[in-house]
Design goal:
With about 140 residues, the chain is mainly beta. It has a single domain, classed as Beta Complex (Metal Binding Protein, Guanine Nucleotide Exchange Factor, Chain A). The strands form two sheets. It has a seven-stranded mixed sheet, with no helix packed on it. Strands 1-2-5 form a three-stranded antiparallel sheet, with no helix packed on it. The two termini are about 20 Å apart.
Length: about 140
């Protein structure tokens, strides 16, 4: 599927059981962050931050549970059935959405995985600010 922007394509994803399904519009080349903070490293989350306008929850709103900690700004959303976190609202980009790249059914053609030092989040969060801005 192709989105309204000819440079973006629509990709679909879901939690493990398929109760929560979404689509996201992405370019063919993406950069994802591999964060070393306590929650991301334990969950294996690969971050793909995009503007909220490119994300569409297709099903499963009623099957999502939210977990917050520390400042309460980040809203970690999990499927109530299988426990997978397919996306969440990140503290670094509360105006955007952070897709778990591993939950996409198909992946863009060019993927660059970069390390992100989330253990020192306060020192590094500003490097992510541009990712939720519509370009």
């Amino acid at each position: 599927m192709t989105s309204s922007d000819p440079e973006l394509k629509t990709y679909h994803g879901s939690c493990h059981c398929g109760s929560v399904q979404f689509s996201v519009e992405l370019p063919d080349a993406v950069e994802v962050e591999d964060c070393n903070c306590s929650i991301c490293s334990k969950a294996g989350f690969l971050h793909l931050i995009v503007p909220l306008t490119r994300f569409h929850l297709l099903s499963g709103q009623d099957n999502l549970s939210t977990y917050t900690f520390n400042t309460g700004i980040a809203r970690h959303t999990f499927c109530k059935t299988c426990g997978v976190k397919p996306f969440y609202t990140p503290r670094s980009n509360p105006d955007g959405i952070d897709i778990n790249f591993r939950c996409l059914d198909q992946k863009p053609g060019e993927v660059s995985i970069v390390a992100f030092d989330g253990q020192n989040w306060e020192d590094n969060a500003a490097t992510l600010a541009h990712k939720s801005i519509e370009q």
